[in-house]
Amino acid sequence: MSITVSKGLTLSSTSFEPGKEIPVKYTCDGDDISPQLSWDGAPEGTETFALIMDDPDAPGRVFTHWVLYNIPASRNELPEGVNAEKFIKKGCSQGVNDFRMMGYGGPCPPPGKPHRYRFHLYALDTTLDLPSGVTKSAVLEAMKGHILAEAEIIGLYKRRK
Question: pTM, whole model, 2 decimals?
Fold first, then answer.
């Protein structure tokens, strides 16, 4: 199952079902590895993709878990367990998350109600002129005027400890 946000772009995962619980292995309570993600339906003119994962239910503010950008248009998938490196094979760059680390930081909410984790994919008509290691806000600012389509899936996670 996938969710389409605009212009036919879809985002899906074999690691979890949208709207359902994210398995422990992708969280701070497990192996803390990134889930598999794939997409389809990029509009004509797409040069790169950007992906941002965040938690809108975090106390006090939206908490950023993953910033990935300049994913070449020739790619349509991120495998499970993307390494926390500045550059990933085939030209992708990663930014810093709100854990102040490069790459993916899995769900890690305080005990209580489940939090929503948004995986938001952007199809862009350009390559972002940004170095590795920038913040989500820098990526969002650089994307202004270049977004051709967007897609999102949301997974849930509740800590039991």
Answer: 0.93
